[in-house]
Amino acid sequence: MASAALPHVPEREAKDADALDALLRGAREPFVIRGLAAEWPLVAAGKTSSKAARDYIERHHRDRPFAVSVGDPKAKGRMYYDEAMGMNFRMTNEKLPQVFQQIDRLEGEPNAPSIYFASIDLHDFFDGLHEANHVDLGTRDPLASIWIGTATRIAAHNDFPDNLAVCAVGKRRFTVFPPEQFRNLYLGPVDNTPAGRAISMVDFHNPDFDAHPRFRDALQHAQVAELEPGDAVFVPSMWWHHVEGLAGFNVLVNYWWRDTPKYLGQPQNALNHAMLAIRDLPKEDREIWRDLFDYYVFEAGDEVTAHIPDHARSVLSRLDKEQAGRIRAFLLRALSQ
């Protein structure tokens, strides 16, 4: 796939936290901000050398095992399935200095394995790294994670939260697709996945249009973002994104947050349960349940509750923390039977 032929994600400017907040508030389209993190010490270290970046990160790490993925050199950085639909990489827990020493030894080797730390919590695994290198997101309470590794290719997937991703070291390429393009991306299993989300089965570097003809349609809606150190891309909730670490050593810091209250459930859990409880019913029964879902969930009009006294509407009212907890407890009891 020739990413150079794809349109670029639009660029925006944010000179301060208020300007960034205004850009992010209600945003439903991706955008790039050049130099958002240009003043980070981590960015400065990476511009000196990849070794300097690793030394800087190591000075802040906590002495605990880190989950690390090690890929087969033959996969050329593609973290994906093997022929048996297992993973083509192995997971292990190692201390950060030992893994960095391995990267030091292998740097520049053409047949080195891929080494990848995925979504490491900045607060749990480091002291002071977040404080010295972070984006001010105002009143948002994001999950801040760091992604560290050699050159890698991460299959297209989506996430429920909004995502601001900052290229701190190396280079990153994001290829993004609107949410409705999922049918054209040929998604794999929802339960057997490399990282918890269903991924596109298309090899973006060598797409098989005979096996995946609708991927041509997806490419008509794709955009690409090429990030240098200090640049950031905003990936809205549910947008599909294929992510490549293009340099020999790459570091990404990202922030996930939801505008909805944390006490609300995860939509993916509802989808999984619907597959368990509804998908394999007879067609006539599925149509009845589709109508009920529209009535209670997707339309949720006044007619649902207009005939019920206000004090008796319970979970049919707009959910608060207490009512959400009541539904969660009810579901736990039902699922345990």
TrEMBL record:
Q: Which InterPro entries match?
A: Cupin_8, JmjC_dom
Q: Which domain of life is it from?
A: Bacteria
> In this protein, which residues make up the domain named JmjC?
109-272
Regions crossing the membrane: none
Instruction: Kindly give the SMART domains that the UniProt entry links to this protein.
Output: JmjC
Q: Fetch the PROSITE patterns from UniProt.
A: JMJC
Q: What is this protein called?
A: Cupin-like domain-containing protein
